[in-house]
Automatic annotation (TrEMBL):
It comes from Kalanchoe fedtschenkoi. Transmembrane segments: none annotated. Residues 737-944 form the SAM-dependent methyltransferase TRM5/TYW2-type domain. One of its GO terms (biological process) is wybutosine biosynthetic process. Pfam families: Kelch_KLHDC2_KLHL20_DRC7, TRM5-TYW2_MTfase, TYW2_N_2, TYW3. The lineage of its organism: Eukaryota, Viridiplantae, Streptophyta, Embryophyta, Tracheophyta. GO terms for cellular component: cytoplasm. This is SAM-dependent methyltransferase TRM5/TYW2-type domain-containing protein. It catalyses: 4-demethylwyosine(37) in tRNA(Phe) + S-adenosyl-L-methionine = 4-demethyl-7-[(3S)-3-amino-3-carboxypropyl]wyosine(37) in tRNA(Phe) + S-methyl-5'-thioadenosine + H(+); 4-demethyl-7-[(3S)-3-amino-3-carboxypropyl]wyosine(37) in tRNA(Phe) + S-adenosyl-L-methionine = 7-[(3S)-3-amino-3-carboxypropyl]wyosine(37) in tRNA(Phe) + S-adenosyl-L-homocysteine + H(+). Keywords: Methyltransferase, S-adenosyl-L-methionine, Transferase, tRNA processing. GO terms for molecular function: tRNA 4-demethylwyosine alpha-amino-alpha-carboxypropyltransferase activity; tRNA methyltransferase activity. Residues 1-25, 583-609 are annotated as: Disordered. Residues 586-596 have a biased composition (Polar residues). Pathway: tRNA modification; wybutosine-tRNA(Phe) biosynthesis.
Length: 944
């Protein structure tokens, strides 16, 4: 609501006749279409902008005033290409000015496009930043994520050259003409990038109405009415009335920031990915691509989508490298089937990875013959893996196999009516007892029908779902979320790839939701896994003879907006589901006997407590069917989240706590005959899974989770109470802290009251334990010395050496002696993304290797000179160079860089000192190669 109000007010001011606060007083004409496109989008509006300008700025000379506080005036300014005669006239007119006037510095400048955009949320900000970076505005980023999410669109092709002072211009007219030519070239590059950004916006869901038209837009009128006291209808309300997400609503694709291993390890296609660790992490296996030379892989990579951590799983007895295989999770085991080892070696082997021990094992499977194949599809129901189709040279399979992972036997299911036919590169998913297949390549065409298979009745069915059927496609993504089946990406690649087609299995209707992506992702042969309410997409890409190999970076899509519009419908359906006329639950004779399992009695009224009481009942399921049963209980609100599930002593069964609502359904049941007919109701599905009900078993209640700050407060409060100290001290506890490796670092202001000292080490051990820290420290002020040493104090632990991993690079340092800068992560990523393969880099303020290591490890610099005068930082730098195996390409120069830095060797010079590196500017220029080419003889330092 606040976002809409601010947007309405801003757009109203844009359309007003009054001048704005800029020196020009109005919008720059060259970018008005671009601003209109941004402002038309419901998730963005611009707050300030400049199309790019060439200028001569005169600022009062002052040794005390801050540079930005000096004021000044433009002697020349244009938002178009500069005319050299006009520039010379403006500049040398100043040279002849009255000498008694205030002395000013005169600077010639080129500044590229810059736009500040307020975004509705962080996801929207990530989307427009991705578009801007792809268009060449590589310094774009999110500048604020507080109450307002602000994005800056900008790049680095700026120029600033001092010309002298008023009355004393120190350069010739020829040099000024040269500068004008350089500035005009930069203006041309700026306009090309601006046009590219404009086209990228148009191609990714942005529209373009003029400012005046915007004022007449119904959406803005509604917001304006709300500002004046009217009532605005929220987007969620509109969506609920419309019955779904509107045609103009988009799901943003957000790039995932990867920590730990390099993101290039996930540059794959033809790989597989499964969720593990209670479906919170994604296990990636095999595929083509990876770091270094692209090839078929057999790596196991574990991705944490929430934290972005990527680790290599150390395994034993890995299968041969492959792509086009399938991987299926059954319990804690991942089964890999088939694939292609090389163009002539097609596989039909079966491997299993125990995700607990990380040991691979090749399986010998009997039963029906399973021919070698790749590009087939697999899905799991219970302990069985269903495989359909595939490809082997010119043979396209129509066979349907099931692998029983208990007895390790293949069974071929005969074809029946309405079967999908021969295909490869299709997708298949499972939900409850049904399999769904979509797309793929047949023997002569691309396919686009949705088929289902019921594993209970062994019947195929061509689904008839209302609405626009998705386009025919292959090598696409398919996933299950709630009661939706989602389809996206694939080939042929066109605009339809930028949407998700959703089959609503409750309403039996197709929905199509556009994706607001950066346009650079190629979702072909990718993988998709649902983690909580996010779709995690890994890999994808293609090889093109004209443009080379293209890979997609890992992405996430928030799926919650899909169901926000159907909340009312879902609630009504849940209410109806509670009124089941004839539920069926198996007797104890339907599952393997267990002495500790109490069978459901024929009459169990006394076993069930009131609706408001606490249920003590559990559902007993075989371990192989535990996931399916748990999902079914959770889906219908029958899983009691206040108690823990537990494993029976036999190790083969899991007990899930159930709610009173579930018990009430059992109480309403009058017949428990084994021969009762099955239906689509959920209780018969539990019956089919072999569920047994255990009454009056209280189990163990789940401990409610608390944030660390609350845990610390409770622990310290208990300590104060034992020491008979005032509880008022609790108000001084820190609310935030940082982590350096395994050290939790408290703020400098923490526990400064002298009364804390009486608790001694007991206080620090209590705090460390409550925060789950092996070592505890308190931050100190950065020393005001030239070496800017850290004064961090270790409270629990022996020393301050830590190891921090970032963007695949290891940084180790003594935190009590060296500070670590968190604020330059985006700049380190930018440096790492450069191509410095044949370049020499000089870093004048190397520190522990903040930028030295990205230049060497990721940007592949030929050689880096690292200048540093802090001996503690130098010790850490040398260790880091060895740890990252790049010591042979770095020369460490100890001492003042003004004395030690090399001259005339560098393609790039890095000046990374805060708050200013001005004292080393001359050193930086002298280190550049071009300087000695143009100035082979010493010149006066006053020139700088």
């Amino acid at each position: 609501m606040e976002f809409e109000k601010r947007k309405a007010a801003t757009l109203s001011s844009l359309g007003a006749a009054e001048t704005d606060k800029s020196p020009k007083g109005s919008l720059d004409t060259p970018i008005i279409p671009l601003l209109n496109v941004i402002n038309r989008h419901p998730s963005y509006y611009t707050t300030s902008s400049c199309s790019g300008r060439i200028s001569i700025l005169s600022t009062p000379t002052s040794s005390t005033a801050h540079k930005k506080a000096r004021g000044g005036s433009w002697l020349f300014i244009t938002h178009d290409f500069a005319d050299k005669d006009a520039v010379l006239d403006a500049l040398f007119r100043v040279d002849d000015a009255d000498a008694s006037a205030q002395q000013c510095d005169v600077v010639f400048r080129f500044e590229p496009l810059i736009i500040a955009v307020e975004c509705r949320d962080v996801a929207s900000a990530q989307t427009i930043v991705s578009l801007a970076i792809a268009a060449g505005f590589r310094e774009s980023g999110i500048t604020s994520v507080g109450k307002r999410v602000i994005v800056g669109i900008r790049c680095s092709i700026r120029m600033e050259v001092p010309l002298g002072e008023t009355g004393r211009v120190l350069v010739s007219t020829e040099y000024v003409e040269f500068l004008v030519g350089v500035a005009n070239q930069k203006m041309e590059a700026n306009r090309k990038r601006t046009d590219g950004f404009f086209q990228a916006l148009l191609g990714n869901g942005f529209g373009g109405l003029g400012v005046a038209e915007m004022k007449d837009c119904a959406e803005i009128n509604e917001v304006a009415d709300s500002i004046n006291g009217g009532v605005e209808q929220t987007q969620l309300e509109k969506t609920a009335i419309d019955g779904g997400l509107g045609a103009s609503d988009c799901l943003p694709i957000a790039p995932m920031t990867i920590d730990g291993e390099p993101v290039e390890r996930l540059f794959l296609w033809g790989h597989t990915a499964c969720t593990v660790d209670d479906q919170k992490k994604v296990l990636v296996y095999g595929g083509f691509g990876g770091m270094g030379r692209h090839a078929r892989r057999n790596d196991c990579l574990l991705l944490d989508p929430l934290g972005g951590a990527l680790d290599v799983v150390k395994v034993e007895n890995s299968p041969p490298p492959r792509l086009g295989h399938t991987a299926s999770m059954v319990g804690k085991h991942m089964f890999v089937i088939g694939g292609r080892a090389d163009p002539v070696n097609i596989l039909n082997d079966v491997w299993v990875l125990d995700t607990v021990t990380n040991i691979w094992k090749q399986l010998e499977c009997g039963g029906s013959a399973f021919a070698p194949r790749h590009r087939h599809a697999a899905a799991v129901v219970g302990s069985k893996i269903y495989i359909y189709g595939g490809l082997n040279n010119d043979t396209v399979f129509s066979s349907f196999h099931v692998l029983d992972t208990i007895n390790l036997k293949w069974i071929e299911i005969p074809c029946s009516t309405d079967w999908p036919g021969a295909r490869h590169s299709h997708a298949m998913v499972a939900t409850e007892s049904q399999l769904f297949i979509f797309g793929g390549c047949g023997t002569d065409k691309v396919l686009g029908e949705l088929f289902s298979f019921d594993v209970r009745t062994h019947r195929w069915q061509k689904e008839q779902i209302n609405g626009k059927v998705p386009r025919a496609q292959f090598s696409h993504l398919m996933f299950v979320y709630k009661h939706f089946i989602g389809i996206m990406g694939g080939c042929p690649v066109n605009k339809a790839c930028k949407e998700i087609a959703l089959a609503d299995l409750k309403l039996r209707a197709w929905k199509h939701i556009p994706l607001n992506s950066a346009g650079k992702d190629l979702l072909v042969r990718s993988t998709a896994n649902v983690v909580d309410d996010s779709l995690v997409i890994v890999g994808g890409g293609a090889a093109c003879y004209a443009f080379g190999t293209k890979f997609s970076e890992p992405l996430t899509i928030n799926l919650l907006p899909i169901i926000s519009a159907t909340g009312a419908i879902s609630r009504n359906e849940k209410a109806q589901n509670c009124d089941v006329e004839k539920p069926y639950v198996s007797r104890s004779s339907d599952v393997p006997s267990n002495d500790s399992a109490e069978a459901v009695p024929q009459s169990h009224e006394s076993s069930i407590e009131s609706e408001t009481g606490i249920s003590h009942s559990f559902v007993l399921l075989e371990r192989d069917f535990a996931k399916v049963g748990k999902d079914l209980l959770k889906k219908h609100g029958w899983l009691d989240l206040t108690r823990k599930a537990y494993s029976r002593e036999d190790g083969k069964h899991i007990c899930f706590p159930v709610t009173n609502k579930f018990c009430s359904l059992l109480h309403a049941e009058k017949s428990l005959e084994k021969t009762a007919p099955l239906s689509s109701d959920p209780l018969p599905t539990l019956c089919k899974l072999g569920a047994t009900i255990i009454m009056n078993d209280a189990g163990e209640f789940r401990k409610p989770s608390h944030p660390p700050a609350k845990i610390m407060r409770e622990a310290v409060a208990s300590l104060l109470k034992r020491q008979d100290m005032a509880e008022d001290l609790l108000e001084e506890l820190p609310a935030r802290w940082e982590r350096l490796g395994d050290i939790v670092v408290l703020p400098e202001s923490s526990f400064k009251n002298k009364m804390w000292d009486s608790l001694g080490n007991e206080l620090w051990s209590t705090v460390a334990k409550s925060l789950g820290a092996r070592r505890l420290a308190r931050q100190g002020r950065v020393a005001s010395t030239g070496t800017r040493d850290s004064t961090l104090e270790i409270l629990v632990g022996e020393n301050g050496w830590v190891e921090h991993r970032e963007n695949g690079i290891v940084y180790s340092f003594d935190a009590t002696k060296c500070m670590f800068s968190w604020g330059n992560l985006s700049e380190k990523l930018r440096m790492a993304g450069m191509n410095c393969r044949d370049e020499v880099v000089v870093d004048l303020f190397a520190g522990i290797g903040y930028f030295v290591l990205p230049f060497l490890v990721r940007a592949n610099a030929k050689l880096v000179y690292a200048c540093e005068w802090n001996l503690n930082a130098i010790e850490a730098l040398r260790r880091n160079l060895e740890a990252n195996s790049v010591a042979d390409r770095c020369i460490v120069l100890e001492g003042d860089n003004r004395l030690t830095a090399p001259k005339g060797v560098a393609n790039r010079v890095n000046l990374g000192l805060l708050p200013t590196s001005e004292l080393s500017w001359e050193t930086a220029v002298r280190a550049l190669r071009f300087f000695f080419f143009y100035f082979p003889y010493p010149i006066q330092s006053a020139f700088f």
